[in-house]
Specification:
With 367 residues, the chain is mainly α. 67% of the residues lie in helices and 0% in strands. Residues 340-367 are annotated as: Disordered.
Length: 367
């Protein structure tokens, strides 16, 4: 029964172009090119654990000391007084619509319950140093991976002529540098998907979760179907903008407002150029218009293209939020809030930051 299900799932008519079998693209010494091995899609999972270990080491021994040297404090909100009954009520409903019912049950005033609730919620928020370390880790990876991607793809013909992603498909070999680029990138997104549940909780938690899952699915599908060429271009476009997303956040948490504003302007240019320019009008246009002209379509390709379009929808949403922050920046005089979040946590706001800008406070007094 299981064998029947697996055979049905891995049907060649679904995953491969017409007149192509799994044997045709299976790696082997007698083949003219080195094909991708579908079993390698599982390699990034244990590699993701290695990434999390490296991240923990760097955050503890490098990023945290560096952040403290910049004056970032590892202070946390005051803890709520120990109250087992309120704690039990909090675990049952962290965000109650009204506190009067809870106050009556526990024989407390509504004001006492509200004050305790506010302290209890704030104590779970990470410190500014924790957020700085997280963003610095991501910035480090995206910068290194983007540089590595440029190095890997510079001499590849499909970087300069995207039609080469389809000409000769599926008989396109994978080189060792492209293999490492794919495995490292996939492992990083696996690590983000796993660690997201205990990382800093942001307003766009589920959007980011969908983004990571869609990216992993794209990389896995493209690897199994030997569509790795278009996959490498997608990675390169994404990493370029993410460098500035994370650097803006890190500069904000470090209190370097001028650097933050400058990087934010660069981010807007790079983000719009890559995420809503190159990505839809070059890559998705190629996969949707040029690909059907150069190779016969098959069901898995439509799944692959649908995932590309799903990422585009997220890009459009985040572009709107970034432009909204840019609009508020022009009004306020400095970058507020958190990139790709409709509204930031209290700890992300300049009114509650350990490093609020003096010019911002002064302008508020004048108002």
């Amino acid at each position: 029964m299981l064998r029947l299900i697996l055979d049905k799932f891995w049907d060649e008519g679904v995953w491969l172009p017409p007149n192509t079998t799994w044997e045709d693209i299976a790696p082997g010494p007698d083949k003219a090119v080195e094909y991708t091995n579908y079993t390698h899609v599982f390699i990034p999972i244990p590699l993701a654990v290695v990434f999390m270990v490296i991240r923990n080491f760097l955050e503890k021994h490098w990023y945290a000391p560096f952040g403290k040297s910049l004056g970032i404090k590892d202070t946390r909100p005051r803890k709520a007084p120990n109250n087992p009954k309120l704690e039990e009520a909090y675990r049952q409903c962290p965000k109650p619509k009204q506190f009067s019912t809870i106050a009556k049950k526990l024989d407390l005033t509504e004001r006492q319950v509200e004050r305790w609730w506010r302290l209890r919620r704030s104590q779970e928020k990470p410190s500014t140093l924790t957020k700085f370390c997280e963003n610095t880790w991501k910035f480090t990876f995206y910068l290194i991976n983007f540089t590595f991607g440029i190095f890997v793809l510079w001499d590849k013909e499909w970087l300069w002529d995207i039609d080469q992603c389809y000409i000769g498909y599926p008989h396109q070999g994978v080189t060792s540098d492209v293999w490492w680029y794919y495995m490292i990138s996939s492992a990083f997104y696996w690590s983000l998907t796993i660690s997201q549940f205990w990382d800093v909780k942001r307003k766009d938690f589920w959007q980011m979760f969908v983004h990571h899952i869609a990216t992993i699915a794209l990389l896995s599908f493209s690897w199994v179907c030997n569509l790795h060429r278009i996959g490498t271009l997608m990675l390169l476009v994404h990493d370029c903008a993410d460098i500035f997303v994370e650097s803006v956040k890190a500069a904000k948490y470090a209190g370097y407002q001028r650097l933050c504003d400058t990087l934010f302007l660069v981010l807007i240019v790079v983000w719009i150029s890559t995420r809503v320019g190159i990505y839809p009008f070059y890559i998705i246009w190629s996969t949707s218009i040029r690909a059907p002209m150069l190779l016969p379509m098959f069901p898995a390709y439509y799944i692959f293209n649908s995932l590309l379009c799903l990422l585009l929808c997220l890009h459009i949403l985040w572009t709107w939020l970034i432009l909204l922050i840019a609009y508020n920046t022009l009004k306020a005089g400095q970058m507020e809030g958190d990139i790709r979040s409709s509204s930031s946590e209290l700890s992300d706001s300049p009114h509650n930051s350990n490093h609020s800008s003096p010019t911002r406070v002064k302008s508020k007094k004048v108002t």
